[in-house]
Amino acid sequence: MKLTDRIFVKFFYKKIKIIIQRSYKKGYSQGKDKGYRKGHDDGVLKYHIRREIDTFSMSAIDNSIYGPENIGVTRELEQLMIEKVRVATKAGIISSPSPSQWEMIFSDHPATCVVAGAGSGKSTTLILRVVFMHFYLKIPLNKITVISFTKKSCEELSEKLNKVFTFWDEGYDKESVNSLVSTFHSLIYRFSLNSMPGISVFDFLGEHKNENESALEISLGKKNNEQIDILKSVYTELYNNNKEFKICIDKLVDFSITSSSSSDEKEQRSWLINYAAERDLALTKKINDLWSKDGKWPIEGIVPGPVKCFHVNGNIFYANGYVEHNKMPVFYQVILGVRNYLMGMTLLILMKPIPRKKYF
Description:
The chain is an alpha+beta fold and 360 residues long. Among the domains are: 75-110 and 118-189, P-loop containing nucleotide triphosphate hydrolases (Rossmann fold, 3-Layer(aba) Sandwich), CATH 3.40.50; 225-258, no CATH class; 265-348, no CATH class. The chain has 11 helices and 6 strands. The strands form 2 sheets. Strands 3-4-5-6 form a 4-stranded antiparallel β-sheet. It has a two-stranded parallel ribbon with strand order 1-2. A hairpin with a 2-residue loop joins strand 3 (302-312) and strand 4. It is extended, with a radius of gyration of 43 Å. One of its GO terms (biological process) is recombinational repair.
């Protein structure tokens, strides 16, 4: 090949190489930029602030349970009720409500929720609420229901209602008043009879209760014969046809056979009392010595012991001393550290005197 041809080929090859390199760098740079922008845009969390207040709309009022109208409570009706309750209070029929209780009694909202603790007068307030609804707001008794959780509380509420209703109207319908109060279980039971006719509730099988009885209560005690027969049939069917149930029952049977029988709880308590009594006198003396070594014993006005304090199962237990002027027993407590150092002390005085003739 001629020299000129070789120079041309070399120059052409070099030119092509430069063009390829430039094209690669340009394509790489453009692709990188484009890919970065796309990835960045996809990965950015964007918040769009829009004014949506104008498009907000309230949902329709649900009138399926409670209507939108309040109960027709007026100031005149409140005054009549207050005057009558004042007379009933003087007669000892019922206690006088507090301002917060009056607020509940006179509530004009059909769905009023009140939360109160024990001994706060819930029963009294509830009874006066029923009286106000029936005698002043003219709500029929068959439109009122009072629900409690136990049969005993239902009986107490019915008794109080009858007492108060007698004061307001001696000719009231006692049967209707008694039907106002029911337990939660009784209410559900009546619902089940209406919604599932022909189906018996297991908890009331064999009871032969009147479905209109006001205070049905689920029994937590011994099952009756009808309930036992159903449980036995269900158990037998499961044991014969359900493999997993059978395995679990077999494991329980094996465990009951192989496990050691536990001692009676009363026997354990008696053993602990006897064990404590054996070392009580020595422990009382030791505690007195520790208080004395710490310079806190004796204390003025307290006669040092040990002194006999009480008996349990024929065992004598001792007090560390007693208050001289009223014979109150005194007990000291000692908290010992790992090196038997006296870490803390407590003095306890019982509020019941020790009979002098019996013990000292």
